[in-house]
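re: ur question from earlier - yeah i can do the single chain one, its not a big deal. heres the input i used so u can compare w yours
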Amino acid sequence: MGAGADLLRMPFVANKTLMHMPRVNQPVILMRPGAANVRLAQRLDREGISSWQWPAFRITLPEDQEPVSYRLSHLDGFDMVVLASPAAVAAVAHWIRQWPPHITLATVGEGTARVIKAAWGGDTPVLYPEGEAEHSGSEALFALMKKGKIPSRVLIARGQTGREWLSEQLNALGADVEKLAAYVRVPLELSPEQTGQLQRAVRGPSPIVYVTSTDSVATLLHAIRVVPAARDWLVRGVAVTIHPRCAERLREAGFECVDITGADDELVAACVKRHLAGNLSLSAW
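and the output i got, formated as tokens:
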């Protein structure tokens, strides 16, 4: 894989009239980066619900890979490596085939823990907070760390930014924390086709938007700036998310209807269908 090649390729799926709910032509916008977004879109499509795949970020390897390669091949001084997202796992797996036995892997939730085990084997030990997405995150992982011995030296694999709070908390307890930019997040920019689609959509029902991170909220608002009235149209819709922190950021952005669900595809699909059915009832009335 060359520098800058997409780690997670995400095709765009055009919106179509809902086959099972033809009276409400309401866009469903999916913003989760990576293969998980494609998988969810395919699940919805099987149930007659078309979607716009607008991943908040496209994930690529850094242009200069030498510092990452060097650090990941010299882990003797570290006790723990934090892989806080599927993107971090995909990037680090480019260099790591097997983890040194002295390294403890950690992540912020069950979903990424499953991705870690898929990458390096089901018996790979991982420290992570169990439960639904609302009980995950840096705070939950830190609380779990404090129950044991705080590692003396921690490497956090991330994009250009992120996990600052976790780093600060570990530093405060005496841990030496190093942050590694293992991948690059390229924010969403609408293509001419997507822009035209948005221009047509703002004359109709506001969307259901699935957002999974606080950073994705700002990315979405920036991407739609090219279409007048798009922001007002957007925030009149429904925002579906998986974490209270992201829900708070969505409300700050102006969304009045914010729904928190689990990260499992089945739960997200059920939540989307519930809101579509609600709007169908309003339309019929």
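Residues 265-284 form the longest helix (20 residues). not sure if urs matches, ping me
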